[in-house]
Amino acid sequence: MNSRLDFPTTLLAIQQMFPSEGAAAEYLQAVRWPDGFACRFCGWSGEPYIFENKPTILRCRKCKRDTSITADTVMHATRTPLQVWFWAAYLVTTQTPGQSAIQLQRQLGLSRYETAFQILHKLRAAMVRPDRDRIGDKWPVEVDETYVGGKTRGEGRGVHHKAIVAGAVEVRAKVVKGSNRTIYAGRLRLQVVKDRSAKVLEMFVNESVEPQSHIITDGWVGYDGLSGLGYDHKPVVLNGD
């Protein structure tokens, strides 16, 4: 994002910065073309023509072709106002317990649950950096895996229609004056994996955690090979499992 642009950090700030669809479109235009608009069709640079009733469309004054400021973004071809997207992005990135589609629908006054779900899904996907670095190094890392999914009925006992998600989180510590040391979660890496085998879990750890980091897991045999990969592995056996 353009470092010259202010970033809203409070509810009042986002309300003041984006009072209209035009203000939101102007901000997004500045983010996408920090050095000024350049037509992707003919290469012309300058101030485009902006329709008053369609602020997300920029028309090149040379070739007369239109460019949508939401093209090639998570908002591509959206019919939802930019103000709604901006508010959704703020809520999703600032709510500590997380945000559900139902909560988003209620808070933004959306008539359809499907709209809230799609916005939430696209924002979550956009929050993952494809070139993200590996965690650990300076902090211990806890690694575990779990099944994620809703309950199923009428299909007998066992696990049905659930995904296995592996997770690695930094275990950080800070000293609060006048109290004991406080443990809190640092950076997090999550990935859907096909099974709980050693091959799959070792690949996840290798892609997510810095070599030689201190890793804490449970006693699952799928983690037994981590020491051989150069990690300082400490399995914690609970209840003989």
Oligomer: single chain
Question: What is the rounded Rg?
Answer: 23 Å
What is the 3D form?
Answer: elongated
Domain unit count? 2
Binned strand content: 15-25%
Q: Can you summarize the main beta sheet?
A: 5 strands, mixed
Helical stretch count? 6
Briefly note the structural class of the backbone: alpha/beta
Q: How would you state the average pLDDT, rounded?
A: 89
The percent range for helix content is: 25-40%
The strands making up the biggest β-sheet line up spatially as 6-5-4-7-8
What is the string of SSEs from the N terminus onward? HHEEEHHHEEEHEE
Q: Total strand count, please?
A: 8
Q: How many angstroms does the end-to-end distance come to?
A: 48 Å
Which regions have little confidence, pLDDT < 50, spanning 5+ residues? Answer: none
How would you sum up this structure, described in words?
The strands form two sheets. This protein has a five-stranded mixed beta sheet, with helices on one face. The protein is elongated, with a radius of gyration of 23 Å. The chain has six helices and eight strands; from the N terminus they run ααβββαααβββαββ. It has helices at residues 11-17, 21-32, 82-94, 101-108, 113-126, 198-208; strands spanning 49-51, 54-59, 66-68, 141-148, 163-175, 181-193, 214-217, 232-235. It has two domains: 11-126, no CATH class; 141-150 and 161-235, no CATH class. 27% of the residues lie in helices and 22% in strands. With 241 residues, the chain is α/β, with parallel strands linked by helices.
